[in-house]
Amino acid sequence: RYMTTAEIREKYLSYFEEKGCKRMPSSSLIPDDPSLLLTSAGMVQFKPYFLQQKQLEAPYIGTTTVQKCVRTNDIDIIGTTGRHLSFFEMLGNFSFGAYFKEEMCAWAYDFSVNVLELPPERLYFTVFEDDDETIEIWKSLGVPDDHISRLGEDDNFWRAGPTGPCGPCSEIYFDQGPEFGCGSPDCAPGCDCDRFLEYWNCVFTQYDGQEDGTLLPLPKKNIDTGMGLERMAAIMQGVQSNYETDVLRSLVAVGERLAGVTYGDNADTDLSLRIIADHSRAVTFMIADGILPSNEGRGYVLRRLLRRAIMKAHLIGVEGHFLNEYVDEIVRLMGDVYPEIVENRELERKLILAEEERFGATLRQGQAYLEDALGKLEGATLSGEEAFTLHDTYGFPVEVTQEIAEGRGIAVDMEGFEAAMEAQRERARAAGAKDAEAAWSTYGGIYADLLNEFGPTKFTGYAATAAEAKVL
Ligand code: ATP
Ligand code: MG
Ligand code: MG
Ligand code: MG
Fold it and tell me: Which of 129, 145, 227, 460 lies in disulfide reach of 200, CB 3.0 to 4.6 Å?
């Protein structure tokens, strides 16, 4: 049964409201929590409740929200899978010692099978390693044995950051069909491919993680759940990718119009269209919540997303000021649910325009240098030093260098490039730059931030992001 994103959002919130949960607004993308860089899950605003520092007023048994989330840990796979976005909406319900596993599993099953009318034979359930209790609960609801599996910490122990409320979890997957899988005989829920689509995580929040790694039991047993709205929309709309759901497909269409291309014609172009659609939404919401582009912290994440969107647009022939076309469409599509993006529209437009101007100028200079280098080239390989100069002096992303060179049948010596990069990192370290991020922004030219997505070194700029990247 087809459902719009708006219908699913409302059905979820009213379902849990009827169960006795208080419907609360999404919190800001800027968390009220120094251990986190950005709000990456629905539970973030409820940490004080899990810790019993705050109490929910009677007669509510819990809360339910749709939460704006930005995740940096998925950034380099955005658009390459159908299910990962940098910005997404998470539907959730939360219990602070009132209801627990038994009720939650029953409701998750009922909502999936009776409200959304998902066919039970396509649902799969995972539990944390030794959680026999939850296996029994799923079975009692009619889930057959061979649709339940056990997974380890990586998948089924959930934490928002290095410390704080956390616990084992149980997740629900929708089988999109073998044709969307990796084909491996081991393909099963938890596989990285898109066949088994994880759509709902039910966390049994029982611990308070300490700095030293120990897990102290929380005073009460809690529930923290998260369902990806875009993922559910893909299921309900019969499409395999989040990018083909109503809201995101409209943003892909903005790119089609601007670039004069058709989605589905060319894999590289499609990837760019997906990335721009995703990143434009993230930056619009981030600016609306008061984040400004900068070279550190969350402003750095914003700048990275902005520049990556601009670069991807450049690759498909869209230049000049174009991102505001996306902003207008995002405001039209989502402004009724998130009035902050409407109220801050002028700020969003202005900041994006300024960044487009700065970044666009650099892209053009780098391109002129590259044209010159390619023109003078003897042989079929552009040297690593040349690619490095483009990066270092012109701030030209090596990915773009490769793209353009390869278009002329010319390879880029990536080993030489990596060696030059490594030498640069050494110099930065020797110069006493405190961390990798500082090194990049000090020595790497203004695009250095983009580079680490394609280089061998993962972004480890500051503790919160590194922690998020590890545990989410
Ligand atoms: P995956 O394994 O697919 O990366 P996850 O296990 O990291 O997902 P959780 O941390 O369990 O995701 O988040 C709860 C739910 O939020 C997921 O089940 C999914 O529906 C949704 N979700 C998580 N990350 C993303 C994302 N990057 N884009 C869209 N939805 C997401
Ligand atoms: Mg997962
Ligand atoms: Mg999960
Ligand atoms: Mg993930």
Answer: 227
